[in-house]
Design a protein that fits this description.
Number of domains: 1
CATH class: Alpha Beta
Strand content: 15-25%
Structural class: alpha/beta
Number of strands: 11
Order of helices and strands: EHEHEHEHEHEEEHEEHEHH
Radius of gyration: 18 Å
Distance between the termini: 31 Å
CATH superfamily: NAD(P)-binding Rossmann-like Domain
CATH architecture: 3-Layer(aba) Sandwich
Largest sheet: 6 strands, parallel
Amino acid sequence: MRIAVAGATGVVGKYVVEVARARGHEVVGLARSVGVDLTTGAGLAERLDGVDAVVDVTSVPTQKQEEAEAFFGSVTRTLVAAEQQAGVRHHIALSIVGIDDVPTGYYRGKQLQERLVREAPVGWSILRATQFHEFAEQALGFVRVGPFSVVPRMLSQPVAAVEVAEALVDLAEAGPSGRVPDLAGPERLAMVDLARRVSKARGLGRRVVGLPLPGAAGRGMRDGSLCPSTDGPRGRITFDAWLAG
């Protein structure tokens, strides 16, 4: 197969590229580094020539609803329009477990993305996954005050990014599958504890302070709304195994 990856240089995207190539597929990266602007479509048409499936793992660093909806809306509309014109048969989007129950601006953007994918004239699949193991280290940099890192109090069931990539390539090989069961890791864990373990293991010297975020979003993060509520596939790689790798 010829698989295009939007967000090919990101945390999950790089693994999608590796997994797809290891399985013998041809991979086309869709990124600014190769002259593609996913918000405008510049340089996109020629990159989709002969592509069978597009895997969208793009992201944007914002919690503002307007910015998140603008990004995910423009990227999804642009990709779908170009796919239809190029004859691409399958659009695969990576989303997040719990976005319907935790009202943040970023998750509103992901909800818009999912709606646009479902309404698209191209065959589609949507996989929701929990936070990646890598999120704990990212959280250390959200708010830094001297040696202190402020990390939101949240309950998570993190999964290894490489296992998310494997599931996405599985979907590309399977063909349009609609909304598939949520993917999560093997353990429910507190993000504050994970951040502390990362800091210690990496020798980062960060002192982690847990902060309960206000409002419905904060309550949802703390009460497990970002964890799967139904049975589904579970990753094999524990957080400790990932950290030791």
